Here is the input.
Amino acid sequence: MKGRYAFVGLVLMAVVVIGLAAVYLLTPATSGRIVVTGVLKQGVEAGCTILEAEHGQVYTLFDMPNYRCGSPSASPDLGQTVRCLPPYGRIVKVTGYIERNAASYCMQGQLLHVESMTVLN
Here is the structure.
């Protein structure tokens, strides 16, 4: 009798694991396009840039090869789409999408894949 309960328990556990794996594999890796306004800040890890959004959410800015250029104190014109990362403390509007199934050593907030960034202040 005990063997039967153990077998049923193992079958139920296998069903749960397979179900969770299916949900993970069928969940899209990215969200739809979003637009976030907030303040650029230095992350706690070296080389990490975060965006502290107006609504309090924190995003790690991810995959920004077009923004790694020039002087870190570059001062782009207001309202212009920037090509180099502006200094920390600037308010920017970022368009991109959330990377759901990715990880980063930055370990802060959600990963936001940057498609464009506009300086607002």
Notes: The chain is about 20% helix and 30% strand. The first helix runs from residue 2 to 26. The two ends are 72 Å apart (CA to CA). The chain has two domains: 1-30, 34-119.
